[in-house]
Amino acid sequence: MSALPTSSNLPDSAALAEGIRTWIECESPSNSPAGVAAMAALVEQQARAAGLTTQLTSLGDATGPLLYVTNRAQGDTRPGVLVLAHMDTVHPVGTLGENPCRIDGDKLYGPGSYDMKGGIYLALTALATLAKPDATRLPIDFLLVPDEETGSHASRPAIESYARNARYGLVCEPARPNGGKCVTARKGTGMLRLQVKGRPSHAGMQHEKGRSAIREMAHQVLALEAMTDYERGVTVSVGTISGGTVTNTVPALCNCVVDFRVPTMEAAEDTLTRMRGLQAVGADVSLDIDVELNRPPMVKSEATTQLLGKARLFATAAGFQLDDAPMTGGGSDANFTSAMGVPTLDGLGADGDGAHTLNEYILVSTLAARAKFWQLLLRDLE
Q1: Strands 166-171 and 80-86: what pairing?
Q2: Per-residue pLDDT tens for 196-236?
Q3: What is the pTM of this model?
Q4: CA–CA dist 7, 11 (Å, integer)
């Protein structure tokens, strides 16, 4: 098993690729709690061996543990640099059979390679060369969560707790394809669960006594989808729908789950108000509305722009150009830190493509420069 460096010297791209490969091939980076726990144990072992302080915290058997890694001296309570990463992926155990870990030309393939084992490995490798408390201008707090892909519901309190003592936030999500751009703005993400309750009746003999929940849901689906406003950057998508019991009964229940994305808190509040205000169209039916904004929008602030300027200088020194991507519709844990006023850069992980697919990969030739960038960023931010 490849070890993290214990000196100031960073591995070359080939050695970094081999280290990432060992993480992927153990098949612990999965979407199961047991897989995440195995991944956490592996990362903790390597971090401790490199001289870093670690702490594992259980978030329950259904989620997997939270891993904290730091170079803080005991008693040092100064605001520091908060690095965020997630150990879970969208891939179940067994995906290696469909997408085996392999290098083909400049591409390292494998489940979780791009999103986001490559990014974690780069940041942790850089931190391993800075394990002594006085090796960085600010203390480094590295938080690895087990449930980002499912919304970070269990880990959000910890993320926000560490963010309260953070001067900057850096997130290991993968760099954007075609240039390795970082992310400075993300839409907020939300979910609506809607249940329509009608009245059952025999579809042949007493059709008129029934109140179809599916018919009512059809009205609500149209109303929800009409909330999409591309000019404002608001999207609403009814993702799943189910209802009814048997074909010869007027359906008494129908359920749907709705995804929505919003660029600002103003748009979020407007969308939440409209969803909470949905009214039944038909008679003798009722709506049960459960809606939440899971991740607040990540809005690019002046402080974030200043942080990006510093990061660009470090990227140039490492040998590549760092640009920021347009606002993305996908959410991450950067949404939480940004909403708390912490200047945050996201998409600082590995350069590659294919997130959430069986063809995801990272570009081997970019790894050394990206690791150097992380080393400079963690060492010299102040």
Answers
A1: parallel
A2: 999 999 999 999 999 999 999 999 999 999 999 999 999 99
A3: 0.93
A4: 10
